[in-house]
Predict the 3D structure of the following.
Amino acid sequence: MRVYGIKTCGSVKKALKFLNESGIEYEFIDFKKTPVDCEKIDSWIVKVGIDKLFNSRGTKYRTLKLKELNLDDAGKREWLCKENLLIKRPVIELDDGNIVVGFDEEQYREIFHG
């Protein structure tokens, strides 16, 4: 299983803590060191939709003043490819091919503890 994010992100820290405490093995991919490409982003969009993946609440969104651009889905996708920090974090690729976006402890309990 792979966890994508950045180490300084609060949600990523919570997710990693949960996984560590649950004894779940994962590989961590840091967006800052290993950016993901459009192909990967497209595969995620197909699974969860652009709105779940695109973080319109983050600092990067505000810094880039993207609200003023009134982006459509194609525009959002383009920005996600260009700027991985706009991806809602963490993104977890499960072994079964599904993905989980963001940190929700209840959801994690259901997924990882059945």
The chain has one domain: 2-113. The two ends are 16 Å apart (CA to CA).
